[in-house]
Amino acid sequence: MKNQPRILFMGTPGFAVASLKALHNSNHNIVGIVTSPDKPAGRGRKLRRSAVAEYADKTGLSPLLQPGNLKDPGFIRSITDLKPDIAVVVAFRMLPESVWEISAKGTFNLHASLLPRYRGAAPINHAIINGETKTGVTTFLLDKEIDTGKIILSEETSIGPDETAGILHDRLMEMGASLVKETVRLLWSDSAQLTDQTKLLTENNVIKSAPKIFPSDCFINWGGSSERIHNFIRGLSPRPGARALLKGQKKEILIKITASAYEISLHQIKPGTIILSEKNSLKVAVEDGYINILMLQPEGKNLMTAAEFLRGINLDGFEMTIDLQV
Question: How many domains does the chain have?
Answer without folding.
Answer: 2
